[in-house]
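Thread title: Can someone regenerate the structure for this chain?

I was given the following input by a collaborator and told the matching structure tokens would be attached. They weren't. Posting the sequence so someone can regenerate them.
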Amino acid sequence: MTGTSSTDVVKMFMAAMEKMDFDNALQFVADDLVYINSPNTVSHGPAGVRATLEPFFAPIEENEFRILRTISEADRVVTERLDRHRIAQGWFELPVTGVFEVHDGKICYWREYFDMQTIQQAMQQLMGANA
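Best answer:
Regenerated them for you:
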């Protein structure tokens, strides 16, 4: 990925993840990646990303990742996003901030900040509305 900006790498990665195309997305991930999905979930490398996210995405029929803001400085990229997920019961939304570091065209650090209670409340509303 020489000649590709860090921001472009992150955006291409997010576009592939939005489609749940793990094979394409993971080409943007370094073998020594550190991925922190929540305080208690730290994964490493492409296999760690897949093991963490495939179960989460399993019930999801469609994603829409709206990147609202991007801040970049050299190899660091911060995205403020609205991640929208459609399951059988309907859509739910999750505001997310992602922090990425990119070296040699690969993401080597990725940390997501979100409120777990937001997911739980959205799921309860979907399940209650469709009960």
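The chain has four helices and six strands.
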